[in-house]
UniProtKB/TrEMBL annotation:
<dbReference type="InterPro" id="IPR001650">
    <property type="entry name" value="Helicase_C-like"/>
</dbReference>
<dbReference type="Pfam" id="PF00270">
    <property type="entry name" value="DEAD"/>
</dbReference>
<keyword id="KW-0234">DNA repair</keyword>
<dbReference type="InterPro" id="IPR047112">
    <property type="entry name" value="RecG/Mfd"/>
</dbReference>
<dbReference type="InterPro" id="IPR011545">
    <property type="entry name" value="DEAD/DEAH_box_helicase_dom"/>
</dbReference>
<dbReference type="GO" id="GO:0016787">
    <property type="term" value="F:hydrolase activity"/>
</dbReference>
<dbReference type="Pfam" id="PF17191">
    <property type="entry name" value="RecG_wedge"/>
</dbReference>
<dbReference type="InterPro" id="IPR012340">
    <property type="entry name" value="NA-bd_OB-fold"/>
</dbReference>
<keyword id="KW-0347">Helicase</keyword>
<keyword id="KW-0227">DNA damage</keyword>
<dbReference type="InterPro" id="IPR027417">
    <property type="entry name" value="P-loop_NTPase"/>
</dbReference>
<dbReference type="InterPro" id="IPR033454">
    <property type="entry name" value="RecG_wedge"/>
</dbReference>
<keyword id="KW-0378">Hydrolase</keyword>
<dbReference type="InterPro" id="IPR014001">
    <property type="entry name" value="Helicase_ATP-bd"/>
</dbReference>
<protein>
    <recommendedName>
        <fullName>Probable DNA 3'-5' helicase RecG</fullName>
    </recommendedName>
</protein>
<feature type="domain" description="Helicase C-terminal">
    <location>
        <begin position="454"/>
        <end position="613"/>
    </location>
</feature>
<feature type="domain" description="Helicase ATP-binding">
    <location>
        <begin position="273"/>
        <end position="435"/>
    </location>
</feature>
Length: 687
């Protein structure tokens, strides 16, 4: 239950004066549905209003506030020319107040001749004359004091003015209660931070107040860390299944290569965790191509050797099928039953798989999230591996833990080289293994950037590549918010390429039916097709080592981490690989710099750091779509400066008062609710 003290903040936004249906729409577009959302809608910048009593040329370019007297109107002949009100300061200097638009009645009414008004707006030099285009404020002089010298500027949407939002913020602040302090007193003193309420008020009064912002950023990071630690605490209180395989299946594997040192280290860490009676919570990080699949297979075989079941969860159907294939190939000749379950397995096939899981005749299940649905019962699930997790959030991880009577060990694998701060922010409850070494013999991928108007040359290069026996991916541009048009773009591109390459062209996109998708993937994997036109469905994990050319259209529209993932589809075999990034004609400086970085480096960590700086955490982790709680206040800079203290603070608090029952614990609960990490509070009771 939410602490009562927060009720005024969590009231619907309609509780604020002046918010009716007309305003609710634009507010909703900004994600402002409750009073608390408005309070946390922090200003993005501010204007400093220069209060003066004389018009001076050298003030042009600044926003001024001044009392002026209108002396004349200048209507213009033509309909498109503006209407001008000439106004004078007390020294006789003049300025033209400029109003565009057909109707002069309004400025005439607003600015009657010879009546002094307080006027604010941006002063501009227009030839030798001064002008203010559409003043922000025109008020009776006695109301001048109501206009702040420093005015916060908010993110707005159509139908919502800055003034209106300022008023709503003021109302929400007056509803904000003083909250009990959750920050450790010595830290609070050392940082010289204001209280929560004061910090909020200070930022809205002065958006440049770094200290106040820092305090709120800290609160947000602290809430996240505390939530993850509660998840960890509750998970570690659960009983797990100690798993210690005897190595008999793993010894039977016939691998064409030896595991890298990094793979061996990760396997050792995983085996060590799984032998414990508390459930493993481990994140396996490794750049694309670092060989995570083998590590997963070893952990799964360890489980089967111990007489239990394992499951491998993939984010897409294509990837699930590919994993199923790969695991079966690698484990061929072993007495292990590996089955697949996705939304597509229906009817009798599905029934028999469900039965096999329930009676234990299936050892390893590969699939999409269908494998953790209600109807799926395992005999003794002891290990869950989640591949390419970036579409599975904390909430899903918690749900998974609830699936079995005894909590399965959890291994989450990610190819997104997440910067350390983000790992701790989103996976702080997990231990981490890193594959920081690539399998030997990999050649660096050569990346070139080309303008899309050189498409002909690209097609020529593709033709030479295919004639030389190579295969290639052709990834189609991401069309904003529309799967259908992604698909249309891919279909059109495939048609075009077919006129040149005929049946050698395959096509796969997210809207295709399962069997069609399989057929397309299979044809490409077995080299019956040479060119695979695809949407981003091939982004994660697809592995066809013979394909060593990838062409990515509309590259400037992808995130860097995503481009890196896509590029990782090549460079998997022994051959030299090339990635061609096709860009649009007019590029911003930033886009140019981003593509240059892709050309310059294959280092996933550098790319991710840059992406974090440019696009924020949600993009990297792919959590925007999944609705995972995101950082709204804390910037990457805040994270690097504050994460460690927030972590320590949360640690100390949990060590002292794991149930969050004492005064500071209760205050910390308030903080969790405030930042909507309250799912973690639920764990306190159930755990
Ligand atoms: P990812 O980490 O991206 O999931 P994969 O597991 O798909 O990487 O492995 C990429 C490729 O590297 C696969 O073709 C796999 O067979 C190969 N591979 C994995 N481990 C090794 C190794 N130790 N030596 C050589 N090749 C390896
Ligand atoms: Mg993989």
């Amino acid at each position: 239950m939410r602490p009562d003290i927060l009720n005024p903040l969590f009231a619907e936004i309609e509780a604020l004066k002046g918010v009716g249906p007309a305003l609710a729409k634009p507010l909703e577009r900004l994600g402002l549905a409750r009073v608390v959302d408005v309070a946390f809608h922090l200003p993005v910048s501010f204007i400093d209003r220069h209060m003066v009593d004389e018009l001076i040329l050298s003030d042009s370019g600044r926003v001024i506030g001044i009392t002026l007297t209108p002396t004349d109107y200048r209507a213009s002949g033509s309909a498109r020319a503006p209407f001008r009100v000439i106004a004078q300061d007390k020294h006789g200097n003049t300025v033209a107040l400029v109003y565009f638009g057909r109707n002069s009645a309004w400025p005439r009414k607003l600015l009657p001749l010879n009546e002094p008004k307080f006027i604010s707006g941006k002063l501009e030099a227009y030839g030798d004359n001064l002008q203010i285009v559409h003043p922000d404020y025109v008020l009776p002089p006695e109301e001048a004091a109501t206009i702040p010298a420093r005015e916060p500027i908010y993110g707005l949407s159509e139908g919502l003015t800055n003034n209106r939002l300022r008023d709503l913020v003021a109302q929400s602040l007056s509803r904000a209660p003083d909250l009990p302090e959750w920050i450790e007193p010595s830290l609070l003193a050392r940082k010289d931070w204001p209280t929560w309420r004061e910090a909020l008020a200070r930022i809205h009064a002065d958006p440049s107040d770094a200290k106040a912002r820092e305090r709120l950023a800290y609160d947000e990071i602290f809430a996240g860390q505390l939530a993850l630690m509660l998840v960890r605490q509750s998970s570690r209180k659960r009983r797990g299944v100690p798993i210690e395989g005897d190595g008999r299946l793993r010894a039977m594997l016939k691998l064409p290569f030896a595991p890298t040192g990094a793979q061996r280290r990760a396997m050792g860490e995983i085996d060590g965790d799984m032998a414990q009676p508390v459930p493993m919570l481990r994140l396996l990080q490794g750049d694309v191509g670092s060989g995570k699949t083998l590590v997963a297979l070893m952990a799964l075989l360890n489980t089967v050797e111990a007489g239990a079941q394992g499951a491998l969860l993939a984010p897409t159907e294509i990837l699930a099928r590919q994993h199923h294939e790969t695991l079966r190939k690698m484990a061929s000749g072993l007495p292990v039953t590996i089955a697949i379950l996705t939304g597509r397995e229906k009817g009798r096939v599905r029934e028999s798989t469900l039965m096999g899981l329930a009676d234990g005749s299936i050892d390893i299940l590969v699939g999409t999230h269908a494998i953790f649905q209600e109807a799926v019962r395992y005999k003794n699930l002891a290990l869950a591996v989640i591949d390419e997790q970036h579409r599975f959030g904390v909430a899903q991880r918690m749900m998974l833990a609830a699936k079995a009577e005894r909590t399965p060990h959890l291994l989450v694998m990610t190819a997104t080289p997440i910067p350390r701060t983000l790992t701790l922010t989103y996976y702080g409850e997990m231990d981490v293994s890193r594959l920081d070494e690539m399998p030997p013999g990999r050649q660096p991928i050569q990346t070139v950037v080309m303008a899309v108007n050189r498409l002909d040359e690209v097609v020529e290069a593709l033709a030479r590549h295919v004639e030389g026996g190579g295969q290639a991916y052709w990834v189609c541009p991401l069309v904003e918010e529309s799967e259908t048009s992604d698909q249309a773009a891919a279909e059109a591109r495939a048609e075009l390429l077919k006129t040149r390459f005929g049946d050698l062209v395959g096509l796969v996109h997210g809207r295709m039916k399962g069997p069609e998708k399989d057929a397309a993937m299979e044809a490409f994997a077995s080299a019956r097709t040479k060119i695979l036109v695809a949407t981003t469905v091939i982004e994660v994990g697809v592995d066809v080592p013979n394909s060593n050319l990838i062409i990515i259209e509309g590259a400037d529209r992808f995130g860097l981490a995503q481009l890196h993932q896509l590029r990782g589809r090549v460079g998997r075999g022994q051959n030299h690989s090339v990635c061609i990034l096709l860009r649009g004609g007019a590029l911003s400086e930033t886009s140019r710099a981003r593509l240059a970085l892709m050309r310059e480096t294959n280092d996933g960590f550098r790319i991710a750091e840059e992406d974090l700086r440019l696009r924020g955490a949600g993009e990297i982790l792919g959590t925007r779509q999944s609705g995972e709680a995101q950082l709204k206040i804390a910037t990457p800079e805040h994270l690097s400066a504050l994460l460690d203290s927030a972590r320590d603070d949360a640690h100390i608090l949990i060590d002292r008062d794991g149930g969050l029952n004492e005064a500071r614990g209760q205050a910390a609960r308030t903080c969790l609710y405030l930042f909507e990490r309250d799912a973690a509070v639920g764990l306190l009771r159930s755990g």
